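Encode chain A's predicted structure.
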Amino acid sequence: MKTLVSLLSIVCLFCCGNQLAIGQQAEFLYSFGTTGAGDGQFNQPTFVIGDGNGNIFVTDATNDRVSIFDTSGSFQSSFGSSGTGSGQFNFPGGMAIDSSGNIVVADRGNNNVQIFDSTGMFLSTVGLGPTTFNGSYAVALDSNDNFYVSDSFNDRVQVFDSDGFFQFTFGTTGTGNGELDYPVGIDVDSAGNIYVVDRLNDRIQIFDDAGNFQRTFGSSGIGNGEFSTPYDLVLDDFGNIYVSELAGNRVQVFNNAGDFSYTFGSSGTGNGEFMNALGLYVENNLIYVVDEGNDRVQVFAVVPEPSSFALMTIASFGLGMTRRRRRLQAS
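Encoded structure for chain A:
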């Protein structure tokens, strides 16, 4: 009994609010996509998202479309074409899924954000009010379906209500706290805090729901916890932060305090290797990574490090990571 109590005490030290602090790593499972313009092929894929119902959406930027796959990577359908009209794209980027299951797509080249139903039928455009974009690169939604758009070349984030009406903006050009240089990936946590990839400043900045600066982590470099052109980020349901690096060709994982946990990936064309690691999506202990230069999406499983396996088993590994990407479930 004494031994059991001691072991349970150790487990408690590694768990905090159901967030496991046990050693983890990512293991390559499979990839999907090849180079081309046919069904299931890509020409510069950029972002990825899922709807939690078995559908995975990938923005295929140079082909100006969104391709839809099942969770095994089998092609299902696509929507969009090149152009400037409703439902057309010019280098589509980040996506979100709203509480009705509609697909929200940031269209960088057309400087707008478009909304489609779950079948890909155009519904409306976000951006009503006195505002313009210069590179609407990525988009996130909070639990009330408010829109947060990375306005990349204007070095700011623009915020819209659920009806698409402009509310406010935050961020200015610079290197100081709260200043941005080419913001890209963006996500919102359950408390309404906004996480922004500050790409050319090689850091992540966190703002409150009013756009006030809170904190930052990361710096330029190739070491653990350092960034070489970060691109996208996503949170899991425990606030763990996954950050892709375009130039670093890896994904780094941090806890909710911004402390480094582990990394995976390297430069190359083999399994688990990247040529420009871009968009990220997390669902049910799986990590989807857009491998732009190799025109594919790679899928990894989060597994315990071998030295942590026994402890992970006791602590019920697998309870924790669930879908978050770009949309929070309304309470």
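The chain is about 5% helix and 45% strand.
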